[in-house]
Every structure is written in C-alpha cells, then in structure tokens.
C-alpha cells in the first residue's frame, strides 16, 4: 500500500522526466533547409538598448551591413544613463530615446517603438537584442517566413561557443542549446508552436500592433508567444535563421539564470495547468504537449529534484518500507534522459561543451543549488535587470535556459 502511495506521489516527476526525454529525442533530427519567399515591403529591426554604449557600436556595425537595402533599423535607447543614443546616431539608423523610471523593461521599450511606427507602419518587425549578431540570410529568412505564414517566426537563439570559458559556463551554454534548438525543434513537431525567446523574433505588423507589449514581466517574450499561440498565431521555428548572443562569465551567469528561471517558473505555474486542461478537454494533443512542456523545469533543477527523489526512494526501499519499484522507475527514466542528452551533445553540442567540461555535467545542479534556495526564500525577481557580459557588455533580458 505504501509503495502505491509513493508511486502516486512520484507520478508527476516521472511524467515530467518522460516529457523532457521525449522532447530531446524528438529534437535530435535536423530539419532540411527550407527556402522562404523573399520578404515584401518594409521590415524594421528594433534593438531595445539600456546602457549599451560599450557594445551597441559593434552590433550596429555588423547589422547595418547585413540589413543594407532590405531592412530598416530602429534603436530604442531606453532609460539610458550613458552614451548609447549618441553612439547609435553615428550609424545610419533611426534612434529614439525613452525616459520613464516607473515603467522599466524591454516590453515597455518595444511598446514605445511601436507607437512611433504607427504613423507609417512596416509590413513586419524583427526584435533583436542589442548585443546579438546575425546575418543577412537570417534576417531575410525570418521576415520572409513570417510574412508567408502570417505568424510569428523565431530564429534559433544560441550562445556563442566559448571553449576557453570555465566548465560551468560551457555547461550553461550547452543547456541553452538544448532549450533553444533541440527542444524547440521538438515543440515545432509535437505542438506545432515554439516559444519566443526575445531576440531573433519576427512578427507581421498586425500581430505586433495588437500584442500586449507594455509589461515588466521578466519573461515577456515567452508570455507573448503563449498568448499569440492561444489566439491561433503559432510561432514557428526558422532553423535557417540563427542569432548569436555573447555568453556571460561565470559570476554573472548565475545571476542571469536566477532572473530568468524565477520568471519562467512563475509563468509555468500560471499557464501550464490551463493549457493542459484545455488540451484534455478539446482532445488536442498539440495543446496538451504545449502545456506539458511548461511543466519541465530548467535542466539543473530537474536533475536536483531527481537526485533527491531517487535518494529518498532508495532509502525507503533499503528500510523495507516500500519495494524497489519507485527507485527503479526513477533510475530508468533518469538513465533514458541522460542518454538522449548525451546524444544531443554528440550531434549538436560538441562545439559548445568540451569533453573535459562534459564530465563535470553532474556538478552543474550543485553549482545552481544556492540560486534555487534563494528563489525558494525570496521568489522571482520582479524587475528586469541588465546582464553583464565579459568586457563589461550587457544584454537587455536574461535568456531562457534548459
């Protein structure tokens, strides 16, 4: 009887592990290159920037060249206390400034840019973080796909490989790849919709104009994608488009993850049950998968919970309180998840995670344990913060992590 009770208690964890393993396995197969129609009309690339004078020049130098002739660029210098706007004005781009200390965050900056464009709206809008780099082919694929599908289009958003960085930074970059490439592929196949990641996303003007942008949510991009999917505008992963972000150093990586993961967990609690209920009520496997995906916590947290649960199940079995069945089930699904993650590393992640760093993968959950304890005590941060990068650069919003 006690064994049955323990199995019932472990059922949600077994389900979450199964969803994670299924997503990683499903996302291993690469999509064939797809040709999208050339974009029509005007597409504006918006770069929200907060105190980015150290990096905005380098970003714009590359972006102006990539966008030449096909795309317009607008920089939103948002609540800046440095020379971000002045640096941006040295390039052939539109620069607008916003000062509102009460309404801080990327969402408000995007809403401000939208208000400025309403007098002469473009056909589509691409959002790019101010420290990201991409290329002309990616911009054209994003804009062309979004216009052709009349739905949001999301580029593959990756961190630049950092083979000289510390093992924990490499592991974090690999977790980012699992979330933003492998699991996004799986969501496209299983749910017909992916998450918006905040940078490298393109929306037709009608959808951008109607979106609820003016929010201080830490995960405003993910929330926007879920809302668009609910309305029938399902974000599509465009693997032919790639956006690269610089990695944070080890000291700032933990703070970056704390902000985003806290916001993600809060969003998941608020939206996953409703999506799962809707999927079951409407007999829609795609909606159900979208809801189940939100139940999967970040990789390190999932590993920590699995370790604790497996340890507890083993102790109970050794004490003859329950049978070994709960521990065996947990160990089995844990091994399956570990195998598919290793396959993902071999297929996609070797440039991001060296073999010497790979062997330290089990230490990753322990590195993040203090962060989760702090989140449990204090909750998720309520406001957006700038993330420092090596060399003093920063980004607009913390990125998702697996």
TrEMBL record:
UniProt keyword Transmembrane present: yes
- Pfam annotation, one family: Glyco_tranf_2_3
The entry's keywords: Membrane, Transmembrane, Transmembrane helix
Segments spanning the bilayer are: 295-318, 324-346
Annotated region (Disordered) at 380-402
CDD domains attached here?
EpsO_like
Note the InterPro entries from the entry.
Nucleotide-diphossugar_trans (IPR029044)
* SUPFAM superfamilies reported for this sequence: Nucleotide-diphospho-sugar transferases
**The protein's name:** Glycosyltransferase
């Amino acid at each position: 009887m006690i064994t049955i009770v323990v199995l019932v208690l472990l059922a949600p964890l077994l389900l979450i592990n199964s969803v994670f393993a299924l997503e990683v396995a499903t996302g291993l197969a690469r999509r064939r290159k797809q040709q999208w129609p050339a974009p029509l009309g005007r597409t504006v690339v918006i770069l929200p920037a907060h105190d980015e004078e150290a990096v905005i020049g380098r970003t714009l130098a590359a972006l102006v060249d990539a966008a030449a002739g096909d795309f317009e660029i607008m920089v939103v210098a948002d609540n800046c206390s440095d020379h971000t706007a002045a640096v941006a004005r040295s390039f052939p781009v539109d620069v607008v400034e916003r000062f509102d200390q009460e309404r801080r965050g990327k969402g408000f900056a995007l809403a401000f840019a939208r208000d400025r464009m309403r007098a002469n709206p473009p056909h589509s809008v691409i959002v790019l973080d101010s420290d990201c780099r991409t290329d002309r082919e990616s911009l054209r694929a994003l804009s062309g796909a979004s216009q052709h599908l009349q739905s949001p289009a999301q580029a593959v958003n990756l961190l630049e490989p950092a083979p000289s960085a510390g093992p924990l930074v490499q592991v974090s970059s690999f977790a980012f790849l699992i979330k933003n490439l492998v699991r996004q592929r799986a969501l496209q196949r299983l749910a017909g919709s992916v998450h918006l990641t905040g940078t490298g996303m393109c929306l037709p003007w009608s959808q951008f104009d109607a979106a609820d942008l003016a929010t201080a949510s830490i995960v405003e991009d993910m929330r926007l994608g879920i809302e668009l999917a609910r309305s029938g505008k399902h974000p599509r992963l465009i693997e032919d488009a790639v956006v690269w972000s610089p990695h944070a150093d080890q000291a700032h990586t933990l703070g970056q993850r704390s902000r985003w993961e806290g916001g993600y967990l809060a969003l998941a609690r608020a939206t996953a049950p409703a999506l799962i209920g809707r999927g079951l009520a409407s007999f829609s496997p795609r909606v159900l998968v979208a809801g189940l995906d939100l139940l999967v916590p970040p990789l390190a947290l999932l590993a920590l919970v699995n370790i604790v649960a497996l340890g507890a199940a083993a102790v109970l079995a050794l004490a003859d309180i329950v049978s070994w069945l709960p521990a065996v089930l947990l160990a089995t699904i844990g091994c399956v998840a570990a195998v598919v993650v290793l396959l993902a590393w071999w297929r996609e992640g070797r440039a991001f995670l060296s073999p010497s760093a790979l062997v330290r993968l089990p230490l990753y959950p322990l590195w993040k344990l203090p962060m989760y304890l702090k989140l449990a005590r204090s909750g998720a941060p309520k406001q957006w913060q700038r993330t420092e990068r090596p060399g003093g650069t920063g980004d607009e919003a913390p990125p998702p992590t697996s």
